[in-house]
Amino acid sequence: MPVEQRDVHNEAAFDVIIATADYPVIIVTTAAGQERAGCLVGFAGQVSIEPRRFLVGLSHSNHTCAVAQRAQHLAVHLPDRDNPALAELFGSETGSTIDKFAHCDWHTGPHALPILTASEAWFTGPILQRHDFGDHMGILLGLSAASAPNRALAASRYSDVADVPPGHPQ
What we know:
Layout lengths: L7 H14 L4 E7 L2 E7 L1 E6 L4 E7 L3 H6 L4 E6 L5 H9 L13 E3 L5 E3 L4 E12 L3 E6 L3 E3 L10 H4 L9
Antiparallel strand pairs: 1-2, 1-5, 3-4, 4-9, 5-8, 6-7, 8-9, 8-10
């Protein structure tokens, strides 16, 4: 298989296009045994209508990815743009050094997953497949439980968190 050649011009153009799309960001939480983890995720989206399927990309260098490799379920939260502190906590800190859950309100939800109280929009699902996507692991989820907000939600987007320094090295 040929090695991909880097084309800096095309990479820069791609980065501009993706930033312009301004995708929503999510917070993923999980648990394996007694260990909890969670992180801000920019690579995610629905990939099937029926059955419902969602794909999450977790950086291999992220503590949450290591925990998710041992987990059976994930929780996906859609953070509200009006609560930037939650996105910053889960984006700029690493579970390798702090317990993020000690700095926010949460409760135990389906499958013993940590559910973030400040995020009214969330769902959980079983991990159906894991795939190596280069510097990220792709996790395909089914649907097992969900909670929709009772009000209009302005989802956090990439532009809202673009200046948040990552909690782990790239």
